[in-house]
Amino acid sequence: MSAEVATPTGADAVASGERARRLTENIFRVRELGIVLALALLIAVTAILEPRFIEWDSLKDLLRNASLIAIMAVGQTLVLVTRNVDLSVSSVLGLAAFMTGDMLSGHGTPIGLVILLAIALGAACGLLNGLLVTFGRVPALVVTLGTLYAFRGLAFLWTDGRQINAETLPDSFLNLGTGTWLGIPSIAVIALIVVIAVGYFLRSYRSGREFYATGSNPAAARLAGIRIDRRVTIAFVVSGALAGLAGALFTARYGTVDATAGTGYEFQVIAAAVVGGVAITGGVGTVYGAAIGALLMGCITSSLIFLKVDSFWQQAAVGALLLVAIGFDRFIGLRLDAALRQRSARRAA
Amino acid sequence: MPPEAPAATADEARSGFQLPGLLSRWETLIVGLIVVVFIIGASLSDEFLTTATITTGTFDMIEVALMALPLALVVVAAEIDLSIASVLGLSSAVMAALWNAGLPLELIMPLCLVMGALCGAFNGILVTRFGLTSLAVTIGTLALFRGLAFVVIGDESVTDFPSEWTDRAFGTIADGWIPNVLVLFVALAIGFALLLHATPFGRNVFAIGANVEASRFSGMRVKRIKLTLFALSGTVAALAGIVISLRNSTAAANVGTGFELTTVAAVVLGGVSIFGGKGTIGGVVLALILLAGIQKALTLAEGVSSYWIQIVTGILLIGSVLGPNLVSRAREARAHTSRSRGSWPSPGVGLSNRPRKEEAE
Predict the structure, then answer these.
(1) Do A157 and B146 touch (CB under 8 A)?
(2) Which of A136, A143, A280 comes nearest B133 by C-beta?
(3) ipTM, 2 decimals?
């Protein structure tokens, strides 16, 4: 996607830059179309074999299950686009989930305030990650692996073996996890708002495009005057904040929370983003793709249950899907390179 | 201590540390930390400085320790393998399934090792022949191999392995305090240390990690070497699967879940650069001793929550990279030189081995 951020001078160059931009955009639209098609195919096949699958109740369940991963995948996309990675999201979710449960059970704190605090807690964790990566110059993989352990350890210390149960939580809060707004599960509505807001920002704002520039070519981005440290830090803060939000929603959805909440989610979240076309090498991908990736992974799980396939196949299927997705990305990446090279050769001639 | 690493000495010289060689080495720092942990451990509990600590400490860490050795080589070559714990699980599951099918253990174990090598080679082929990023590939196979483990054996487990073999895995030499598996680990550690630090193959691994383009142009078989490393990683992970199954007398699909991150933590803490080109087996072995020591000290200590293990591990992990970075930045600021060495990770980059050139602006 480096063609998008380059600003060649001269009218001709601008026009050809515009054409190249349209080409890359079209190709990546094809990429998202591919995963939408895969999703549609999966739903169609499952529905034919087992019509109960497309009853609204089971679809609502599907949406609820995918929403938590989708919200975190949005934050992860931001981080991956800047050519970093955030493994700590699952531990941040655990911390935020327990804090939410702890504050709501018995203390009578207003629900809105608690959710805001969960987001703030997540943002603070993300800020720590971001500063260690940018100011401390520690690779993101090392930082977030470290905080994955440290935050989870804090969660264990804090809970001290306690567990939050659904009975102690206010009903209005639990409704957030299980209820619906206008017939659509409220968690899914929240996820949709997050996806659209972040997606619009990344697509249409100058500062949004700078995330892609940062990840495509950090050195060039810095020379172009982009404050890449600030972009990277913001990406981590957003990822942490969304993991915090997901933590609050986790408590609302499941009601039962202990220190192990969300263990192992980090790989699911990264997998969802990568399946959705976000490149782990930075600079490529959209939050819409990541969200559809989360939906596709959730859909595989529930369709296997509906088709009474041994649930043991589920994890293997997700792994295979991820490998196919990155193989496909590599393929269209090579095609795109070839097409762009051909274009510039033709222009030179 | 395992053999010294000539490669690291050269590396340290290049990275521009001005302190006298030995003092500035990461390994020396870990030895210092180990001493501190042992002093604290001894003051927290009378049981700490006993041979029993070594015996139980070995059993706590042995699988992670085995897998850390080949992973160190993979990371030195600027790749990563997150699928190791899943290969371990798959190996355990296959072992259980073949045992249920009536095969003798003497045949099952080599078959598991071959399967591990094939899993590793699968990763390696996807990375080298298809040009995919190893982080993404091995997150995929992390799910795939663990999934296959469940497909093979479901949620059953096998616990009726012959005591002849389980005793070997759980036993100690001459019924003393040295566990048999520790001997296995030491033998492998020496083997991998020789491979990395004393053979042309090892030199090539460092060269590939430092600059893959230059290595290719100087005629190294980059793809073949990386493929070999992934296959080695898979083989040893399968071996760890055999060890954990026999040691606990339980083979199941879910064993060792999450071990991949502990292993990566041990490798990074051992001073292996996540960008490749740098690291020693000796450092990794010391990091494993440190981690086992901390774990033991915290579990033996009265009144200290054992949950501190995770917090201490996390802080150490970040500190192991942050500390040297801050020192070098402070020194650079003082020296006011623009001479760049390109050996510190550039900001905001956590994954690829490309951006190290950026420092030279």
Answers:
(1) no
(2) A280
(3) 0.82
